[in-house]
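Project standup — Tuesday

K.O.: blocked on the structure for the chain from last sprint. Re-posting the sequence here as requested.
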Amino acid sequence: MADKNKKGLNLKLYGIFAIIIVAVILSALTFYTFTARYTAFDPVKTAVAYVDTIVQTGDGYNACKSTLLSKDMKFGDFIRQTYINPVVYENYKPGESTKGLKGLNDDSLKGEKTLNDNGELEGKVIDTMYPFFVNLIESNGGFDNFHAIFTQYIAELQRVREDVFGDRFFNDEAFFTAFEANLSAYGESLTGTQDEYDKNTGVQTKIASVGAYQEKFGEDYKIEVVPSGDAKVEGNKCTVNVNVVVNGKAEVENLPVPLQKIGRSWYVDNTSCNTSQLYTFYK
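H.V.: unblocked you, prediction finished:
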């Protein structure tokens, strides 16, 4: 009888241990899968993704989403709180609530042109701002000096918008619409474009063009960003060197990307990262 009880006890223990082992394995697999998908858990992947976002289309703006600027809030909210709201609301301080505040985004400030615009005037603002946008990027060597980029762009956008629309109305939508349209056009100036047609009307909406990358590296160019050596980790800080390879040749070598770990996530330390080479390697 004792042996039977002992055997039953062993089987129960075996079952418990088996369940625990399976649970551990499943947890490990889940963590591995989640980590593999979540780039921020890996400093090398974070650095590579950051540089790749910039070099593929000159998009240092969206690359900022993987930097320390986005560690506490979404990047768009950071821009609103730090650069747009202080312009829209008098005496506003970053981080304050805008609830109940009245500013340049008040509907009472909308003039006739703003109320009746069918997109034509907004398009004029975007086109007028584009040369200014390009000059900002080129004169600052990219987005490392993001403070200068946003403050100067917003100030000029206000001036241009008031000139085109004839009123003082201004809000975050005015900024994001113009800035992101300029960013898209800048990217296309690098990558080139293909003919595009409206699927409903058949009207041509975009004419094919040759971009700066195509002129330099050929029509079928291929840009890759690869790590150069192992990550140098010191506590919660890290440096990853990366190469920008175009058509199999390294055009940028050993670009250091400093990172900082907060919690379980790695962020590019934009305060000490120099990405200016990524905006000139094709010239």
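K.O.: great, moving the ticket to review. Residues 14-19, 21-36 have pLDDT under 50 and may be disordered. Strands lie at 196-197, 204-206, 223-227, 232-234, 237-246, 249-262, 265-268.
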